[in-house]
Amino acid sequence: MGAIEVAELTKEYGSVLGVDSISFSVDEGEVFGFLGPNGAGKTTTIRTLLGLFAPTSGGATVLGADVRDERALVDAKRRIGYLPANLGFHEEVTGEQVLEYHASIKGDRRLDDLLDVFTPPIERPIREYSTGNEQMLGIVQAFMHDPDLVIMDEPTSGLDPLKQERFNEFVRCESDRGTTIFFSSHVLSEVRRVCDRVGILRDGELVGLEDVETLLDQGGKRVRVQTIDEASEALATLDGVVDVDAFADGLQFVYTGDYNALLEALASYDVREIEISEPPLEDVFMHYYGPDGSATDDPEGESSV
């Protein structure tokens, strides 16, 4: 049995459908990214896995505990770390007091090591914290008792780029130690650095379950080129070019073909400036899964979306 097993899980809020019959599993020691734009149902799924919400139908197990079995889940939670999207620390207490409280409940065997990696000013009250410092304090409390599974909701929110990179390195080291990591995100660049696999949620439905390299290959790259008109026309017809948007002295497009072919084509023309980047996660959804959330017939990019 995996660290997390989800089977036909559905959660409704009256007439609103939070998640709809989703099924997936997370292996022990795996870093699993749970992706989707805001409002897709990521937080609903996380809170259901932790027993904070009761499933409407279907079910799930976390470290072998049924999420409907309160006693079993309480025992399992001793081996789980949790970082919520909204931390909710009391503003008048210090970071040290927050950590002492969590230590009294679940232990703190790794606290000193974590404070060397993440450096929230624990002697100061929370009201003086920046968003990044508060997030670092949350990360420390999630890992301080050396859990077998850590569940995080948008863990790098508010962190500066250096701290984000430190977090990414830390997560890979935790995975090497055997810790299972499950976290939600809407940032594709973050996911590609640390995740083994990803599940993609859209409008409450699981529309994809992929290893990271497959996701990135299908998502392509966003290319913006400033060049002469003749080159723009030729590049627009190149195999693997989709979502073309022309502007005054060039064009922008998503490229899903062979990169050598693109470079060969570019070398034939007067390229004044070029920018290549990952497309936003929403664009990956639109290209790979289609506008209705279902997989496209031609993921290699030869059909338009």
TrEMBL record:
The keyword tRNA-binding does not apply. Belongs to the ABC transporter superfamily. Keywords: ATP-binding, Nucleotide-binding, Transport. One of its GO terms (molecular function) is ATP hydrolysis activity. It comes from Natrarchaeobius chitinivorans. The keyword Transport applies. It comes from the Archaea. InterPro entries: AAA+_ATPase, ABC_transporter-like_ATP-bd, DrrA1/2-like_C, P-loop_NTPase. This is ABC transporter ATP-binding protein. The lineage of its organism: Archaea, Methanobacteriati, Methanobacteriota, Stenosarchaea group, Halobacteria. Gene3D superfamilies: P-loop containing nucleotide triphosphate hydrolases. Residues 4-228 form the ABC transporter domain. CDD domains: ABC_DR_subfamily_A (cd03230). Pfam families: ABC_tran (PF00005), DrrA1-3_C (PF13732).
